[in-house]
Amino acid sequence: xxxxxxxxxxxxxxxxxxxxxxxxxxxxxxxxxxxxxxxxxxxxxxxxxxxxxxxxxxxxxxxxxxxxxxxxxxxxxxxxxxxxxxxxxxxxxxxxxxxxxxxxxxxxxxxxxxxxxxxxxxxxxxxxxxxxxxxxxxxxxxxxxxxxxxxxxxxxxxxxxxxxxxxxxxxxxxxxxxxxxxxxxxxxxxxxxxxxxxxxxxxxxxxxxxxxxxxxxxxxxxxxxxxxxxxxxxxxxxxxxxxxxxxxxxxxxxxxxxxxxxxxxxxxxxxxxxxxxxxxxxxxxxxxxxxxxxxxxxxxxxxxxxxxxxxxxxxxxxxxxxxxxxxxxxxxxxxxxxxxxxxxxxxxxxxxxxxxxxxxxxxxxxxxxxxxxxxxxxxxxxxxxxxxxxxxxxxxxxxxxxxxxxxxxxxxxxxxxxxxxxxxxxxxxxxxxxxxxxxxxxxxxxxxxxxxxxxxxxxxxxxxxxxxxxxxxxxxxxxxxxxxxxxxxxxxxxxxxxxxxxxxxxxxxxxxxxxxxxxxxxxxxxxxxxxxxxxxxxxxxxxxxxxxxxxxxxxxxxxxxxxxxxxxxxxxxxxxxxxxxxxxxxxxxxxxxxxxxxxxxxxxxxxxxxxxxxxxxxxxxxxxxxxxxxxxxxxxxxxxxxxxxxxxxxxxxxxxxxxxxxxxxxxxxxxxxxxxxxxxxxxxxxxxxxxxxxxxxxxxxxxxxxxxxxxxxxxxxxxxxxxxxxxxxxxxxxxxxxxxxxxxxxxxxxxxxx
Length: 754
Fold this sequence. Notes:
Elements: H1 5-13, H2 16-30, H3 32-35, E1 40-41, H4 45-62, E2 69-70, E3 77-78, H5 93-97, H6 100-127, H7 130-141, H8 144-148, H9 153-160, H10 162-175, H11 178-193, H12 196-216, H13 221-238, H14 240-251, E4 281-284, E5 288-291, H15 304-316, H16 320-336, H17 343-350, H18 364-384, H19 389-412, H20 420-445, H21 451-469, E6 478-479, H22 488-493, E7 505-507, H23 510-518, H24 524-533, H25 557-567, H26 575-580, E8 583-588, E9 591-597, E10 605-607, E11 610-614, H27 616-623, E12 633-637, E13 652-659, E14 663-670, E15 674-678, E16 686-690, E17 693-695, E18 698-700, E19 704-709, E20 712-720, H28 723-745
Parallel strand pairs: 7-8, 11-12
Antiparallel strand pairs: 1-6, 2-3, 4-5, 8-9, 10-15, 13-14, 14-20, 15-19, 16-17, 16-20, 18-19
Helix pairs in contact: 2-6, 6-7, 6-9, 6-10, 6-18, 7-18, 7-21, 9-11, 10-11, 10-12, 10-13, 11-13, 12-13, 14-28, 15-18, 15-19, 16-18, 19-20, 20-21
């Protein structure tokens, strides 16, 4: 059946260039102050994690070094190996080269645009309809989940690549040749962006598509069978420089098998938020709305029009891909519910790999990708079928009734913290958008050309955008870029002594950390500035102030256990440990917004301690005792006894020392063989050298470093050497070179011999 007159006009209206311009205009209308550089994002992880990390990466870049190790957080922690820090992601040059106060937000919005454009091309290929593709691209860029991802540059970047990866890989297993190389490059770009859950779900969906393609048999099965694994191999090799350090850190981190739990599952009633986004939740944390018992995403609302069209596709579209998309979407929804159904807990026991998804609600990531595609199929079906009006009315009536039922439920059985008035207004607004959307869909089914019918396609896209724009309070509050001025807190606090790399550290108390994590000032600018003065999360990176704690996805296993020890209780107080860690400034006991100086802290390198050998549980226990004196004793693992000849406290002194991001230098003089203790996180990638010769690096005081020296004067040097990165870099560069040569020299028609 040919498209109706209105559908034909809509088809011609949305060319790729026009849609790209439209998408840019919609982003500009939503975030004008950000694009102009007047304000920047600030809430939650953007201000306390993403921006400080980008600042640290930028500092390393302009000093000509790779950010392999971060010495300012958690007494030192791996940086490049974290993956979501994006140190090897080529588009990161945007914020490395341009002024960071503007460019990091622009980086996020650019990927928001890139996401919509990718969805346009994928939906157009699958539906053959420009208008349906434009609607899908708009919905993919503008839904509650995608907008929530703007606070994580890594997540929005990884998410934006999903449609491009699916498009490229599907072409690769069908056509071979250069398409395989192109798919590998696109897949590697997503890999380097560093959102593990999104990457995992992308390739899981591709696996389902590949199996379907193989069973269909439209492309020679032998070719399909071989090309997909080749793409995977090339993607892995191209991204090896990032993947190998990450896997190495993961193997030595706190995230062991079974680490992931059901925390932050979608609530059992979470389906209601697809219809009334502000039901059963509360507006807090600088004016951002959240569901009860779920704080990973501030929304996953798709838009009432997108939901309507997706349901129409599920119920009535007959394309084979729709069935696969529908099954995948239903599974994603069930998995997102986590512990609220028996399905996901059982599957996690059967397939431990599912533990990669830390919070079950993250399965809405793939749902937010599938729903726009389903909506595109639903819209394409309407545009080519004049008899769709009855189906539109039926599904719309069901949605209208559900909104009414949810509002009745929310008002009659409201929870203590519910804002019933706000919920009612929110639900009634969605009902209004439902009616307007329905009217536009019915106009599109008519074959009569009128002025309204000509602008109906644009109106439908605008209504979908405006629905999401107004569905709840802003998800991404902004503040002036000046709040991120480097050195701002250092200048205002004027600490004496001032914590500095290699000299001493700051230590927010457990009570302060808890306060900053669980309470927020409603004004985003003031909230961030207050927390920055408290060096909350990773804000210390903006001032180059080393501190004891920090916020990272992965930490070396011993470091994590040590952090749990000192921050496990709000009332925790371990002055002897604070001395050992070189804490010169700590949060005041009677005022968490004030710092007080400490005078008893030890240098970060000490020597001459008596070694005491214990197992790890007893070491942790001994560290908390009042008689622990880091200047006189050092606690070593029992298995290290064979490597140590020192048995007593000896006379030794540190003549000088120097700490840099990835090296430690010290001169020591000892009257007898001695232990030199470095108050820096132990990690196996650190190498120790004494007078230029390799030496054994000992794990001291559970999570720190030590080296044994003989009598006399010695030069100790510690160097961070990430072997996994070095091996991965060789693999990546070799693969890039070979793939590039093949891509350039092979003809377009030539197929890769598989």
